Amino acid sequence: MFSKACEYGIKASTYIALQSLEMNRVSLKEIASEINSPIAFTAKILHKLAKNDILESVKGPYGGFQIKKERIDSIKLAHIVAAIDGDDIYNGCALGLDECNALQPCPLHEKFVGIRSDLKKMLENTSLYEVATGLEVGLTFLKR
């Protein structure tokens, strides 16, 4: 459902949030290792997230990535998805067809309308704090 970049963005944001709750700043290499993502690809994703004010990038020998502790609960999964994938998840055809719309629907169009609506509500109502604090200790879920 999400692009690979978006999946990594959610995982990276979750990891950064967990570390930020402990007042830790994390490096690109550490994040890439924890989410099992190539470093260059992770860097592009983190750049998009920083550009969209989801996380902060701090330069220098003690630099890295962080999210202000007081902001973690206000960041919704919808913000992360929008920063990386835009709104395609809410508008694209379920079958990937170019000409699918209400006037020329694909066979799944009407069935997919409700799914999209539910997904949008879930993403808009789920905070990064909920995801981060709802996970078990160990973070093994991040690696795939």
Automatic annotation (TrEMBL):
Q: Show the GO cellular component annotation of the record.
A: cytosol
**Which InterPro entries does the UniProt entry name for this protein?**
Tscrpt_reg_Rrf2, WH-like_DNA-bd_sf, WH_DNA-bd_sf
Q: Which domain of life is it from?
A: Bacteria
Q: Return the Pfam families for the record.
A: Rrf2
Which Gene3D superfamilies does the record match to this protein?
A: Winged helix-like DNA-binding domain superfamily/Winged helix DNA-binding domain
Write down what this protein is called. Answer: Transcriptional regulator, BadM/Rrf2 family
| Any one GO molecular function term | DNA-binding transcription factor activity
